[in-house]
Specification:
heterodimer, A: alpha/beta, Rossmann fold, 12 helices, B: alpha/beta, Fumarate Reductase Iron-sulfur Protein, Chain B, domain 2, four-stranded parallel sheet, 8 strands
Chain lengths: 415, 420
């Protein structure tokens, strides 16, 4: 089968790249082995959160100071601002409503109550533009009885540390109590599936309205709206106070919602999304990749003019490590990683770890290298890339999106 | 040492690879509509840890699993979650007997043979309100369900009378595993396949001996019988593939998945040596076109708007692409590909009275998508999805092979492939 572009990996970067190409009428197939790490996302995109341990206030300025090996530097710091606008458009076209700007980070709040710099945050999630000017004075932190994926005491303490007054209010409704029959599976995504009918939302809004007292804003765990924000909007319409959602431990409803919306938009544009299939190998001719094979299409190679490697990092198996080496398992392209295994990790799990920055080696145009030579029609994007650190720098989703659009541009400009 | 450790790290059904991320539960259609079912993570890998200690930890709620395999498709770690659940059900059922109702529902071929003999009577009777009420109360088969109509003539009878003789004359040959549905309920699909394959120069042949693939037997706990039938089918398929050098084609996604993957994984009847020789017809035809070995010429005026539903087992095989891309070759067909959602019938599951409401609740997302798509018909590769969607949406549901056969300009196709 021949496509214009085949993308290996169906997560955030693969979908963003796929949408960008499909929108211009290209025939695109995405091979996605299972659900992606977007399901661990708390409802925000980060461009650049920290440099040398310091919180970044203006990402665009800070990006200009990054080393050459960072994916942003390969795109060109001067292009980031315009790409940022296009990415916002891509989200809104997909029905994902987010707010933020590339030259001024705002703060998102983690499930543990820690404020972290963010670029874009879903409109229904708690967003703090200025720590000195909080969006509310007194918060009603609504805690669902029997729900363990929100560590309430820590969250409340964290919010107080930020300067909020917090009323912790435990509550439940009949719909939620029914779910407790299966406590091990009482997760955000299960709640979101059962809190969908107008009646269930009405019962919840009634509880919130009667319990929220004199507070200015109601915080609820992010358990509303798996496929769009309509459940949240219905709830807000019934609630007497402004309602904001706080991200929960994964799997995340916000992540699932974004995944669903991006995938739906990609399909609407005519894209082919091969869910549950895995790219297993590729055939090279000189400095070009001519086709890949997948586990399920087996005897039918996928041929294309261009290919994109968006298989993610170690957790998504886009990178693998054994006792001797770090490697890229599908195409065997070059990786940037220490040869000496002793250097991969350092003592202390919260310390910076060298392996966080490992990934596929690319040239200045995001072409993958194989034995040191660029493959002219193969691009690497997202977490599989070397030279960035989602955990310590807070640049994971930004790199995924920026490199996705940059690679799509390279593909459109090629030949 | 290092390699040895990696080998020891392999576990049955990739059980040890589970990282407890719960992503499987987010896509489980059953857990989405009921709290009676604990979800695939708990029912699968989590519960398995307990069951390994003591089989008494088996949870009866596992019978609510549809075996739709969506959990396996979603799993980022390659764990065969549904297989773990199936194995647990199998071990727990040892020594138990299936009920009369389950035995009847599972024996699609026995029921079909009897019903074909008296098709007009059977169809009329099964559709009557009093019959439905009796079945509902005595057999616990839900009264909302209508049994698929039985054909007066079996596909195999038609084939032997009207088609068998001509088949040897074609330059190329395939075998056809028609399955129960084509044989007893809907011979037209088999006839469409013969028409289509003949037009591109392929003779179609029956297997030496075909029995029901057994997918319904597995679902209803009749494992011994399923194994017996699997061995018979495996032998016939082996003969077709190895001796006659014919690919065995199918027109049902669930039969295909069962023959290729469930036989070895669940029933331990090894078909891995001939796995590549078993193919859904759309995949086989797509590959022929892709490799430019055959040409399809379509009518220019086949103007229809159709939605494609990916059956769960189709997605598990990852083959929806073939059916979709083949239909996209039809010039004036407007094909809407639906988001993959379970229709809720899962073979015989939805026929059971205790499952009816759950079955409809599961399918509700899909039914809404179909009604939003504003189409005149739905295409899918699974016959039980067809019954469910027809009953729940009122729209006709067709197999992609039938759509292709209808849209094909037969004379022009024969000519393009050098067949007189």
């Amino acid at each position: 089968m021949r496509m214009d572009t085949v993308i290996m990996g169906g997560g955030l970067s693969g979908l963003a790249c796929g949408i960008s190409l499909a929108k211009r009428g290209k025939r695109v197939a995405i091979v996605a082995s299972g659900q992606s790490t977007l399901l661990f996302n708390g409802g925000s995109m980060e461009l650049l959160g920290h440099v040398n341990g310091k919180a970044v206030t203006n990402p665009l300025e800070a990006i200009a100071t990054l080393p050459e090996s960072h994916p942003y530097s390969k795109i060109g710091a001067d292009r980031i601002a315009s790409l940022a606008e296009r990415i916002k458009l891509l989200f809104s076209d997909s029905g994902i409503e987010m707010t933020g700007s590339a030259d001024a980070n705002h703060w998102r709040v983690t499930p543990m109550g820690v404020a972290k710099p963010a670029w874009l945050t879903l409109n229904d999630h708690l967003r703090i533009d200025d720590l000195n000017n909080l969006p509310a004075k007194r918060l009603a932190l609504m805690c669902i009885r029997g729900y363990f994926d929100q560590p309430n005491a820590m969250l409340a303490q964290g919010l107080r540390d930020l300067g909020f007054e917090v009323d912790m209010i435990e509550f439940t409704t009949d719909d939620i109590t029914a779910l407790r029959r299966s406590p091990s599976e009482m997760r955000a995504t299960s709640l979101a599936k059962h809190l969908v009918s107008n009646n269930a939302l009405r019962r919840l809004a009634d509880q919130v309205n009667s319990l929220a007292g004199d507070t200015d804003m109601v915080l609820l765990p992010s358990v509303f709206g798996q496929s769009d924000s309509s459940d949240y909007q219905a709830l807000q319409a019934m609630a007497k106070k402004p309602v904001r959602l706080v991200s929960t431990l994964p799997p995340s409803v916000a992540g699932m919602r974004m995944m669903t919306q991006l995938r739906h938009y990609f399909r609407m544009l005519g894209g082919t999304y091969l869910m549950g299939d895995t790219a297993v190998s590729g055939t090279f001719e000189g400095d070009r990749l001519t086709s890949i094979t997948t586990a399920k299409l087996a005897d039918m190679p996928l041929k294309a003019d261009n290919f994109v490697l968006a298989t993610g990092s170690f957790i998504s198996r886009g990178l693998r490590a054994d006792y001797e080496r770090v490697y890229e398992p599908v195409l065997g392209v070059d990786v940037d990683a220490d040869a000496d295994r002793e250097q991969w990790t350092h003592f202390g799990v919260l310390q910076p770890q060298a392996y966080f920055g490992y990934g596929v080696a690319t040239d200045g145009n995001l072409h993958c290298l194989k034995q040191g030579k660029p493959i002219q029609n193969l691009y690497a994007i997202g977490s599989v890339l070397s030279g960035h650190d989602a955990i310590k720098m807070g640049d994971g989703t930004g790199v995924s999106l920026m490199t996705a659009i940059a690679a799509a541009d390279h593909i459109r400009e090629s030949k | 040492m290092a390699e040895r450790m990696q080998i020891c790290n392999l576990s049955e059904n990739n059980f040890e690879q589970c990282t407890k991320c719960s992503i499987c539960t987010t896509v489980c259609p059953v857990a989405a509509v009921t709290t009676d079912y604990p979800g695939p993570k708990q029912a699968g890998p989590d519960g398995e840890r307990y069951r390994l200690k003591d089989p008494a930890y088996f949870d009866k709620a596992l019978k609510l699993c549809l075996n739709c395999k969506r959990c396996e498709v979603a799993c980022p770690s390659g764990v065969h979650i549904a297989d773990i659940i199936q194995h647990a059900r199998m071990s727990a059922s040892a020594g138990h007997h299936a009920s009369l109702r389950d035995t009847m529902l599972a024996n699609t071929d026995l029921l079909g043979t009897m019903a074909n003999l008296v098709a007009p009577v059977a169809n009329a009777t099964l559709g009557l309100k009093p019959t439905k009420l009796v079945m509902d109360s005595v057999m616990a088969i839900d009264k909302h369900r209508t049994f698929p109509a039985y054909s007066r003539q079996k596909f195999t009878t038609w084939f032997k009378r009207h088609a068998a003789k001509q088949q040897d004359a074609f330059p190329n040959h395939v075998s056809y595993f028609h399955g129960c549905y084509v044989n007893y309920n809907f011979p037209k699909l088999g006839q469409d396949l013969v028409k289509l394959m003949n037009a591109i120069g392929y003779g179609v042949h029956l297997l030496e001996k075909e029995q029901c693939c057994g997918v319904a037997l597995i679902a209803n706990g009749l494992y011994k019988q399923a194994k017996r039938q699997a061995r018979t089918n495996a032998a016939s398929i082996r003969k077709a593939v190895n001796m006659d050098h014919r690919t065995v084609l199918t027109t049902s996604s669930s039969c295909t998945f069962n023959l290729r993957d469930e036989y070895p994984a669940v029933l331990k009847v090894d078909t891995t040596d001939v796995r590549d020789g078993i193919s859904l017809a759309t995949r086989f035809i797509y590959n022929l076109v892709d490799e430019e070995k055959v040409k399809l010429v379509f009518k220019q005026d086949y103007k229809r708007r159709i939605a494609y539903h990916t059956a769960c087992h189709m997605q598990r095989m990852g083959w929806q692409l073939y059916s979709i891309e083949l239909m996209r070759m039809i010039p004036s067909l407007d094909l809407q590909v639906l988001e993959q959602n379970c229709c809720g019938i899962s073979g015989t599951y939805g026929f059971k009275k205790e499952n009816y409401e759950r079955s409809q609740a599961i399918g509700s997302i899909l039914f809404k998508d179909i009604s939003d798509a504003q189409v005149e018909a739905v295409a899918t590769d699974c016959e039980t999805c067809k019954w469910q969607i027809e009953m729940s949406t009122g729209l006709p549901v067709e197999n992609p092979i039938s759509i292709l056969a209808d849209a094909l300009d037969l004379d022009a196709t024969r000519k393009a492939n050098g067949i007189d």
